[in-house]
Amino acid sequence: MSANVTIEEVERVAELANLDLEPDEKPRMQRDLNAILEYVAQLNELDTAGIEPMAQVSDLLDLGSAADAGHGAALRVDRQRPSLDRARVMEEAPETDGAFFKTPKVIER
Amino acid sequence: METLLSTENLVEKPATIASLRAGITSGSVKATDLAEMYYARITAHNPLLNVYLSLTKEQALETAAAIDAAAAKGDALPPLAGIPMGIKDVLVMQGAPATAGSAILKGYEPPYDATSVAKLKAAGAVLLGKINCDEFAMGSSNENSAYGPVRNPVDTERVPGGSSGGSAAAVAANLAVATLGTDTGGSIRQPASFCGVVGVLPTYGRVSRYGLIAFASSLDRVGPFAGNVRDAAQILGVIAGADDRDPTSSGLPVPDYAAESDKDVKGLKIGIPAEYFADGLDPEVRAAIESGIDKLRAAGCEIKPISLKHTRYAIPVYYLVATAEASANLARFDGVRYGHRSPKATNLSSMYRLSREEGFGPEVKRRILLGTYALSAGYYDAYYKKAQQVRRILAEEFLTAFGEVDAIVTPTAPTAAFKLGEKTDDPLAMYLADIYTVTASLAGICGVTVPCGTTSTGLPVGMQVLGPHFGEGTAFRVARAVEAAQAK
pTM score > 0.90 for this model? Predict the structure, then answer.
């Protein structure tokens, strides 16, 4: 995993992340990403063959009966309950018709 | 027996929650006067310290008046009745803006309360306002806030730590009796250490994350800052517990943490991991922590050297896991539903990209890019999966250690507070400020940081007391013993 991120890769990753970097930001991000990736490359010193990746803390714990009580191990009861008030939520929207969020055109003809 | 407080003699030094509550119950302290006094202190000190981003005075005085009325009638008061508190601005609270320290959320007024905030309200706390932090809790110095840095009240040329720098500084400067912060890789513990206050990292799942603006969901925790261990324990008892809005919250019963903290430490086994006292630890910090360990020995603890040999891999793992999760979580800021929308946008795609480019600061962009890179096709196995595998090694190392010891004691940070601007040009150097805190974050275990002496120039040093999953009671006990020994 020794990395040498190019400017083109910075641009590609920025596109994947929906970020429009300013021209002067790109070389700085390239420098920082390379420094950080070089540092994290020390993980290669470890043999991790056969080790199950840990995504959540609950992956780790043998919670026994407590598993029924949360920790992401059990689903909550499926019952109806009120959601946030639409009018109040729409007050926060940059643009709305009251019922929906409005955006610029998705498909241009 | 503490002397009964009156509002007049309560000026510079913060009182304990117990003494304030006793004063409010008896009527010798009015919750409304107390709130006004804190607002006066905020007016005087906030221009320099930049702790509060917004104040909720109307709500606060309304709550305080209701508490005073209940006290006058002789009603039983809730556990935090009239206690002035502040909330880190990554937690949402109705009636106040929530910025997360970011320009992208400027002007956003959340329509709901975070569960931890709702629980404080139900417990009678008087919430003074929202507190500055690094943008989306990404930072170790509070210099990444779009609303300017917070200054450390102990030395205003220095950083308060981060990302919950404002929450730590608020308690240190007595601009709140206690505060809430959040900790993803050290964001409660490191600033508490830098500002000389108590900070708590609860076990993952102990406190609901509902209403916490997400940074890295498998790591994010909500926890208290206070001026003393017992107050912090009491607040954790209020905010902890199951919440069906956060499926990772735990249904395990919530102990009386304050009572747990009162227990004697005699006979407890304390592990001292050699890897946390290696190169890079400031000699004055080391001396302060070693003197704290001697005091625990004198209090009857059994001190046991241990080894956590994979510790040095924790920062690399953390910065891959946290940024990967952040890149996914921060996708929600797209200019559609709330927050900033670029006026320059011409179509949907440019609206997303320009809104995000204009709204996010450099550190947030750096982390989104790193996380997106680590998750992208061709790099996933080499970076993200590898990091998750090493995360398990690190976590299991802690589980093994806690088979032999009741608690683990380390320095909270390798140095005392550094100067403003000292590390802003070097992201990697800034990341290393979290070297002693990230491993506990990855493992999901709990910890308390407690003031443990100072450097020769008077800068606070914090001792980190780590406990196993749901072992907060023990961590509080040990921290309390260290606190008591300092006071002697």
Answer: yes
